[in-house]
Amino acid sequence: MIGRCRVKVCGLTSVADALMVSAAGADALGLVFYANSKRYVSIEQAAAICTAVPPFVATVGLFLDAEACWVEQVLAAVPLTLLQFHGSETPAYCAQFQRPYIKAVGMKGLTARGGFAAYADQYLDAQGFLVDSHAPGAAGGTGEIFDWTQVPQDYPKPIILAGGLTPDNLAEAIRLSRVYAVDVSSGVEARPGIKDAAKVWAFIKNANADAA
């Protein structure tokens, strides 16, 4: 990790939470466009959140094996900064929208599939990779951690750590993984889709502890 660790808070569902998370110092907000998620947002909700977010806070749209027409429909109405593909999307699928994107990588059983680099190298135009505890192609969002020492240290693109992160375990996760950024959802919630302000502020404070 070089410099401070960036923070993305995912699963925002309201303008109020988006403003609170931004004020706490988050670098990016995640909006889930996967209908089976408890944190799903409609196009109308997402557009309102993106309009309210202050400058220099990125908005990230999360999709999981979505029909391309759904992604295009969202992009036509919601000013997203970045796309995040969390399923088994192919490199060609991810590239077709001509938008910056990151690809989620399920670390469970990945070694048997050739390892991280073999998987990530297929996505030549990805801006970075989010590593989570689920199996490759699975939905993720389980809130489970994995062995943080498995996070690749020498890959040339930014790595974002997700999966079971909380204010209490974040410092150790960053120390072991040395990632560019971390991604949290359930670890800072009062209930699914509703963030807990105290947890959000503690999480971001702990993410920046080493840099301070």
List keywords for this structure.
20% strand; 10 strands; 212 residues; globular; alpha/beta; single chain; eight-stranded parallel β-barrel
Describe the structure concisely.
The chain contains seven helices and ten strands.
Blueprint of the fold:
Elements: E1 6-10, H1 15-24, E2 28-32, H2 43-52, E3 58-63, H3 68-77, E4 82-85, H4 91-95, E5 101-106, H5 116-120, E6 128-132, E7 159-161, H6 170-177, E8 181-184, E9 189-191, E10 194-195, H7 197-207
Parallel strand pairs: 1-2, 1-8, 2-3, 3-4, 4-5, 5-6, 6-7, 7-8
Antiparallel strand pairs: 9-10
Helix pairs in contact: 1-7
Give Rg in angstroms.
16 Å
Amount of helix: 25-40%
Oligomer: single chain
Strand order across the largest sheet: 1-2-3-4-5-6-7-8
Compute the number of helices. Answer: 7
> Any low-confidence stretches, pLDDT <50, length ≥5?
none
